[in-house]
Amino acid sequence: MDSANMIGFLAGALTTVSFLPQIVKVLKTRDTRSLSVSMYGLFTLGVFLWLVYGWIVHSPPVIFYNALTFLLSAALLAAKIRWH
Which residues cross the membrane (predicted)? Predict the structure, then answer.
């Protein structure tokens, strides 16, 4: 693996892991009042577009971590809509 992909995987891992505390909190408390539907909606759409971009340019780190982040952000968005 080249250094650019290693940096991409590290960056993706760090930014994706940053979602975990919020997800754990929401799952434990079901309190989504502090989450913004518009922010998570736009963010989820943006992450999806990054995923498409990664697919187009054949970038494994972009594909992998944006797919994972898309699932996490979509889950938070769904929780916000369901439990609000």
Answer: 6-27, 39-56, 62-79
The yes/no answer on whether domain 3-83 falls in CATH 1.20.1280.290 is yes
List the structure tokens of 70.
């898309």
Tell how many helices (H) and how many strands (E) occur in the chain: 4, 0
Cα four-point dihedral sign 19, 25, 30, 34: negative
Q: What is the pLDDT tens value at each position of the chain, 84 positions in all? A: 899 989 999 999 999 999 899 999 998 999 999 989 999 999 999 999 999 999 999 999 999 999 999 999 999 999 999 987
CA distance 78 to 9: 27
Q: How far apart are CA 13 and CA 19, in angstroms?
A: 10
